[in-house]
Structure formats: C-alpha cells, structure tokens
Write a structure and sequence with these properties.
The structure is a homodimer. The first copy, chain A, is an alpha/beta fold. Chain A is built from 14 helices and 21 strands. Chains A, B: It holds the Pfam family Aldedh.
Chain lengths: 506, 506
Amino acid sequence: MTDFRSVAAATGQPQGPSFAVHGPADVANACAAAAEAFDTYRATDAEVRAAFLERIAEEILAIGDDLIEAAMQESGLPRPRLEGERGRTVGQLRLFADVVRKGAWQQLRIDPALPDRQPLPRPDIRLRMIPLGPVAVFGASNFPLAFSTAGGDTASALAAGCPVVVKGHPAHPQTGALVAAAIERAVAACGLPSGVFGHLVGPSNELGAALVQDPRIAAVGFTGSRAGGLALAKLAQARDVPIPVYAEMSSINPVLLLPEALKARGEALGTAFVASLTMGAGQFCTNPGLVLAIEGEGLDAFVAAATSSVAAAAAQTMLTSGICQAYASGVLALEGNAAVETLAKGAPGEGTQGGAALFRTTASAFLADKAMGHEVFGAASLVVVCKDEAELLALLKGLEGQLTATLHMDVADEPLAARLLPVLEIKAGRILANGWPTGVEVCHAMVHGGPFPATSDSRTTSVGSLAIDRFLRPVSYQNLSANLLPPELRDDAHGAPRLVDGVLKI
Amino acid sequence: MTDFRSVAAATGQPQGPSFAVHGPADVANACAAAAEAFDTYRATDAEVRAAFLERIAEEILAIGDDLIEAAMQESGLPRPRLEGERGRTVGQLRLFADVVRKGAWQQLRIDPALPDRQPLPRPDIRLRMIPLGPVAVFGASNFPLAFSTAGGDTASALAAGCPVVVKGHPAHPQTGALVAAAIERAVAACGLPSGVFGHLVGPSNELGAALVQDPRIAAVGFTGSRAGGLALAKLAQARDVPIPVYAEMSSINPVLLLPEALKARGEALGTAFVASLTMGAGQFCTNPGLVLAIEGEGLDAFVAAATSSVAAAAAQTMLTSGICQAYASGVLALEGNAAVETLAKGAPGEGTQGGAALFRTTASAFLADKAMGHEVFGAASLVVVCKDEAELLALLKGLEGQLTATLHMDVADEPLAARLLPVLEIKAGRILANGWPTGVEVCHAMVHGGPFPATSDSRTTSVGSLAIDRFLRPVSYQNLSANLLPPELRDDAHGAPRLVDGVLKI
C-alpha cells in the first residue's frame, strides 16, 4: 500500500484527500533528523522553548474552523466537544510554556564544596534534569487534538527539550496533517532545526513498531488500547538499549456510591451518572464503566433512574468502525453472561453508532469472573451490588489498577470513605469525591495515570504539568568550573528554585 | 541444600556459623508480612519514620567491632575501608531521616477550586506522592554495608514508606545477619509491624527470582552484575503486573585526559590514576576502567607513570573467588587480544587475590571490537589512544551508558571540554572534573546512575537523597473534604514545600 484515505466516522466511508503511507526509510529519516536536532534544541533557553510552545498554540488556533471540521468528520465527535478540546490543547501548550519559564522542572540541586570536612573534603556537586532524547508519540483516536499530534505527550516532551516524532493516528489523518503543519510552521518561525518535530502516517502497526525500535528514540508516549500499549512496551524492552514506554491503556474507573449519599439522592445520582457515561459516546479513558454499591433502597432508586436514562439515550457515532465493532462485542459478551442482568439498552443506532448499555451483577459473580473487569470502550457500565462493606472491600482489593476511583458520599459516609481510601490509593491515580471521572483538568496537581494496566508506569501522569518529568533524567556535575557548568547551575543564576545543601531556595 | 556457610574472602574457605537456606515458603511469608505492614507503615508520620531510620543507624553502630570484623572476613576489604563504609551507611540513614522530616519528597501540589471559571468551574485538586509498596532489595558484594542489607536502596525505600524484603548477598551472610538483626531491633523499638523489614538468605538465584515474582513486591533495587540485573528486569517485566527494577549494573567510567592537563602534569596524573584504579582491589562500580586521550608527549608521561605504578602494585584479596576468576578471565582476554598491548601487570597474588593490570590500544581498534568496552570488574584499565579530537568524539559517541565520565583539564582545555560535554551528558549520570570517579558522595545533588547498561533506568539514582523518588508514585485527590484529605494536603498543613496553583511555597 502506498497511500491511504481518511474515513468519515459517521459513514465508515473514505473521504477527503489520500495520504502517502510512510515506510521504514521515512522512520529512519525522521529519527535521524530528531537525533540531529536534539543537541541544538535541548540547549535552547527557557524563553526560546516557551515561545516555541506558545507559537504552536497560535498556529493551531490560526488553522481556524478547518481544523474543527476535519476533526468532526474524522472522529464523529460534535463541534462543541472539539472546540473545547482545541481550547484544552492550546491551554496545555501554554501551561508547559509557563512551566518551562518557571524552571522547577530542572530540579536544580547544589551541594557546595566543603574543603575542610573531615575525614575527607566534599567536592562541589550540582544536579539538573536533562531531556532523555527524541520521543516517539502515539496519539489517541478519542482525543484527536488534546491527546494526539500536538497533545499532552508532544507538549510535555517538547517542553522537556526532547524532539518529537509523532506516529499520527490513522483514524484522523486530515486533522493530524493540519496540526503537524502548524507545528512545522512554529518550528520554522522560531528558527529551530526541522528535526525538532517529525510526523509519520500510515495505517499499519509496522510503522509504529519501526519507530519504537529505532535506536535514536529514547522514550515513547502512547494513549490507546491495552493490547497496543503492551505490544509497544514489549518492543521497547527487547531493544539493545531498552527505553521507557508511557502507555495509558485501560481503565474501568470504579464509581462507589456510599450508603448515605444513595439514601439522600439515589435517583439524582442515577441520572447524572448516565450523563457522564454517555458523554462523547462513552469514549473517554475515564468513562465510569463500573458502579459499586451496597444493596438497599438507595441503590434501587439509583438503578431505576440510570436504567430509564440509558433506555432513553440516543445512539452516538463512534470514532471508528473498529471501535464500534469492539464495543458491540463487549456489550454482547455481557448480555450473554448468565451472571449478568441487562438493565437497559439505549437506542441501537445504525452503522458506526453505538447505543448505551447498563448491566447489573453481584459482587460474588464479579469476583468469580475476571472478564467482567475488562474495559468495554464505549457507553456501557456494570453495576455491582455488594452485600456489605466487607464484600465491597474485597471487590476493590481484587480490582486491577485504574486511572480514577470516584466516591459519592455525604458527611455521614466519611468514616466508611476513610476505610476505603487506603485501598483506592493503591488502585488508582486519582480519587474524586462527588463528581464524575470524565473531565480531566489540565493543571499542576492532576494525575492522569495509575497502576498497571491503567498505565504501563504508575510513577507518572500523562496530563498536567508533572507529565514533563517522564522525559527527563538527572545528571550531576562534580567540580566543574563555572565556565563549563550549565548556566542555570552557576552561582549567579537566578529564577528557578534550587535545593542548596538540602534547603529549598526560591 | 538446607543450609550454607559463610566463606572467608582471603582463603575461599568456609568459616563461622552456617545459615538456614530460605525457600519459596519463606519468600511468601516475608512478602505477605510486608504487604500486611504496608498500610500501617506508610501511614506513619514523618517524625516516626525519621526516628526509625535514625534508630537503625544507632543499632548498626551498637553492633560495634563485631560488624567490622565479620565484614572484613567475608569481603576481604580492609578495616579502614569498612569503618568508612559503616560511617557512610549510618550517614545515609540519617540523611534520609532529614529528607523525610523536610517533606519535599511528597511533592505536594494544590490547585484550588475555581468555582467561577468559564466555561467550566475548576474542581479542587491536590497531589502527593505515595509509596509504591513492598520493595525487594538485592545487596551488592562490593559494599557489604553501604549497598547491602541497610544500604542506600533499603534506606531510600524505607524513607519512602515502603516495607523492604532484602535478599541478602551470599558473599557476606554473617555481616548481613548482624545488620538485619539491627534493623529488626529498630522495628521493634519503634513499635512498627515486623513485616516492615524481611531478610532472606541463600546462595541460589532461584531465591531472588521467587522474590521478584511475588505479586506483593512492587519494585526492586539491585546492585550487581549486568547479567544479574538484566535477569531480574526480565522477570519483573514478565509478571502479570510488571514492576520497576532499579538495577545498577555495569560501567567502565571513562576518564578523559585533555591535552593541556596532560602536558602540565601527565606523570602526576598517571600516579594518581593508579591509586584510584587499585583502591579496594578495583572493585568499585565507578572504577576507572577506560582512559581516553589524544596522543602526544603528555600522554606518554602519563602512561609511563601509570605503567610503573601498576607494576609496583601489590595484589589484593578480591571479594569472592567467583569475582576473582571472572577478573582473571577478563584480564586474560585483553592480554590475548592482538590489538591490545599489555603495559603492566602488578604482582599476581595467590588464591583469591587479584593483581592490577594496565593495557593500551588505539581508538580505531577499540571502535572495531565491542568486547573491549565491556566491564572487567577489578583493578584493570585500558588506555585508548586517539589521533585527534574527531577520533575522541567518535569513540565517546560509540560508548555504552556509564555511571561517570571524568575530565582532567586545565583552563586552556575548556573549549575542548565544552565540545565534549554534550556527548558526556548523554552518556553518563555524573560528570566530574579533575578528580577520580571512585568516591561517591552521599548528598542531595549526587547521581549514581546513568544510561543503560550503567543502570536499567536512567531516570533515577541509587545514591543520594533523590533515590527516594524511585519508590514513589503520584496520586491526586479531587474535591475531597478536609476530613478525608491526607493531613499534609490540608489547608492548615505546614512544613513541607508545596506548589500552589503553580507557585512554589516554602
């Protein structure tokens, strides 16, 4: 195959221009250019790098409505959602510009020489973080802007000083090409080497595999399926020089409805839950795919309201026909499971549309069947009814790692919540109260990460300013003269916070 | 085998008491106890945890000279070295006590709610680091105190709030048992659950494999051979839930002699170099195993002085007969390499003693033969003669990842050093000027780490206070009530630094 075409999500039919399929030679060229650009790019000062990130944001906005329309066509997501996502994408680039300027990401540390120390003098030792090297980024189909070509992985890697080679998602090649061209314009406008950003497209897995295996790639950012993330992690580990893979993969995002909250507002919770479940056709990494509660009247009210909301839910166009088929299979498997009761199905929809679905089972059935804990990507959720707190705790302890865990509670539920929290902390990257996990704020304190298989590396986040740490490593400098020290580590440097002899100075 | 005995390094003969060999049931028991202790231990406040670390230090000192004598017997290392190492071990525990008290390790971040933000309000989001879970520690034979049972991995994992299960090094079971008992006394004295520390001993690799494969283990710290580290990393990756392995493995620690420094003091550098090379029978991770310089008179003077110093060097007892045999094979391979010239060999020694050895080759021969770049653990080093700066740079670029890179230089060498630094930064965890890489300061700015294969994870250090980060992961809390928030994230908390809305507050 030498070219491929964009596919309209709504029809499953090819549309728009065709794109040349990149092959091994293109991968090698992009990686060589990235490696070539690395020293120049990482040596840029904070202002240059921050201005570059801001310029990318401006260039993306300057594309105008063509970008939104391309993304609507290719993803089937509605206009307001994509306009919001563009705002998020641009805001994320600007956040990282601010992070780069403030300089805390360098984690500067200075232990001055102690020439008179006994029994041995201490040398002068200074530490900073440096970028890992060229980063391969695999965008996600479900956020064609914010988790794709110029998404969080790209923004945080560029902020760290790493050139980026994006493997564009084949579900939105037009959108990807528009954004890639915007980044390329920003590279040129800022006078940076063109290898700072590379963009490869094609529908095959081989393309991505070749990228991860290229010896010049130093780290990988990925958002997508568990199978995809695990395959990339395996390739990365099998290299002569293994590299880190930050794969955000699979999560069913348990929502715990505590007894007093259920008693007080079971019905309202049921309605609000379905609004979160069906948002964007349920195609969020943080979609609430599992509801846990102790049996009782409050839960009955929740289930009744959620059931009627799901039954009334309109079908929605899914991102790709592959995702739509996988969703239908997942729903079918739950329907066919004798231990699972189908509470409601929304309007079935046609073609690439997916209808919402709600199921119920018992804690003992859930514990006995691992398959019930697997992600069904789309607007399906499973309510698991527990007999008591002990069963709820056992169920939580048996869960795999999650991006989020949600508690709905009242003040009177706090003692129970306090007993659950230590388990939730071990299971999830973010714990939230009285809200819904969909909606991931891009800020400093956000963790969009979590224990395996939510991600391949629980020590990190892919959203928020802490994401920059994924692409850095520490280097220390011992007794280097001021002329040779990186400027930010010299005695006369200022601006970035530093730890001097163990004491933090701002 | 049900028991095994300690072996005297000097004689290779069994000595002292025998030790029961632990098996799979002991691994399971230790891991179950660690998992059981985890929630209690991680919930301890800073003062309790810091006092515990300090108590371990006191208990180690309280063992008195028995500890030094056991370590001397088992490792063959001399008394002053082991007394120094005990000081380092105790100092390291106290450093982490200080780190725990200061609280920066928690990386607290608070993004307060913005209820009036448009188009959507921002929730209250707060982040802290939490410990990963029980950590398996594999001590090193070459530092029976500072990198073993109560070494840097144990100290940093305990500081992070992780219970530790040590797989004691079979080369020093007596030393290990004394230190393990000291830690156990500290656990009891501080009223902590006994599972906070576990100690497993035995001579087989199966014991360590079972430990890494236990599902309750959340991370691994290892110092040792490349083969050993890679084997553990492979096991860790193959688990149902993969876990991070921090293996510090293999480094030849290039020393670059720049032309002006060589001209000014080639002879003195040669003598000082051999002192570093032969220290502790060359059994340091940071031993200078590779010397790089551009040909000329200064280099000739260096080589002449180093050659006569090596020739005059006494043989020294090595840590184990296995290490001694591996060293002899490594030396033999270099001697038998037609492209390598043997400059000098020290006194050959008997039994488990190793003699120093110095070799010379050309850059082109080195570049053509990867085997020359492999670590020979012991007091052997290879001088690689480069024709010019271009050849030196090519050689550096071809090197594998290193723990350290050293520059000997004068002011007039600085322009050349500035051209070399970007390459050295990519290759090594620590760059030092006008010193020797042996001697790793335990401080805040130290990086004892580096790109693969120096370590399995270049993003970390195993020495210094930054080592605590290896055992932590971020969790964020969204809209939790003050009652449920961890105390350090509440509005009224004080002491630890925090990032509030992106602004660092001390």
